[in-house]
Amino acid sequence: MISKTFFELRRISRILWVRIALILILSVIAALSAELFDPLIPEELKDRFSASATLPILTILANSMLAVTTFSVGVMVTSHRAIGDQTTPRIHRLLMEDTRTQSVLATFIGAFTYALSAIILFRAGYYSPAASVIVFAATVLVVAIVVVSILRWIDHLSALSSLDHALSVAEDRASDTLKTHAELPTLGATPIVDLDEIPAGTKPILASTSGYIRWIDVKPLGEAAKDADAKVFLTRLPGDTVLEGQAMAQVSQGDADLCDSLTEHFAISPNRSPEQDPRYALHVLSESGSKALSPGINDPGTAVEVIIRLERRLWEWSHTSPAEEPVKRSAVYCCALGAAELLETAFNSLMRDGAGQIEVLLRLQSALMTLAEGGSDEMKEAVPDMLKRLEDHGDQALPTEADKDRLRQARKRFSAA
User: Fold this and answer.
1) How far is Cα 394 from Cα 402, in angstroms, rounded to an integer?
2) Which residues are CB-neighbours of 146 under 8 A, at least 6 positions away?
3) Integer Cα distance of 253 and 81 in angstroms
4) Are 207 and 262 in contact (CB under 8 A)?
5) Is the confidence at residue 98, as pLDDT, over 80?
6) In this predicted model, what pLDDT tens digit does every residue of 40-62 receive, in sequence order?
7) pLDDT of residue 315
């Protein structure tokens, strides 16, 4: 359960309002706790840093932070909408998990809440002269934090609404997911070739709700199965859709209570997530390139850049060795996603939507040949089919015979290599 708990905490920590709520609570606590330090304050400081010295600063801080927060939220929403129009709405979910934006907004709102709370407590007569000194020191610290946050925010704004930033965020998430997948291609389960290896007479683990399988906690799932002297066969992987009451896995033996207890090791949500789903991580990038090839945008240069980013990530994936060799025997069994599925997810839509543009097809062809020549054996086996499909798309959509010949000649060079 530890890994699933960590996953849930990590997911919750990336929700904007959660981080802001934590800062708000800390701000109120800071304003209320100043009175506790009364005995520690020397008498000479009480006259110098009185309420009259602190209140103007708090008033300025409260007024300015409210305006800055409103402006910053507006900029964030506008930037995300613009990026979604240029790329894909799915990238908005990745941008919303941007920790820098969340931290800056939380700092601004926290500073506003702290200043407002301190002003209210001053006016209510809650603070003693000694507490006023603590509030002044805390206010100076808050102002310094705000200044640093504003400088970070200004630097971040220069990239926030740029297409390059959005693609970089998507590529970074794809890199993390693919590296994890390469190290644990079966999520830590014992690999099987295909689902035909599932024995007869198994019982299903049914989904408790409809949505996407977002996370499977394989280690405790396997431990629970071993305790029951059973085996679990995963029939659906993270990223697959499931409806309430449909089977997510099969158990070799056990009663209905065992199957129900094993559902807690599956996390289902309305949206896909890239944590254990390399196909989705690649799909976000690929969809951004396809969007650039739409008639309304017509930006093949962005599509070519997306192909380069996908090539880098797949190259890295094919050169990452599994974390454990040989794989430890687990009571959980599943099929690993292969190179063919990842290549199809990454390049199929770009191949289809860029079929009429020779520069896109040539870059796709170059990427595929590079992956075949320097990638893993599995990659080498999967690439020829993709190259044949690319040539078929080109034959159907390219406007001139000269462009079609360029594709064929490049394919011949690959075949002869």
Assistant:
1) 11
2) 61, 65, 107, 108, 111
3) 50
4) no
5) no
6) 666 666 666 667 778 888 899 88
7) 93
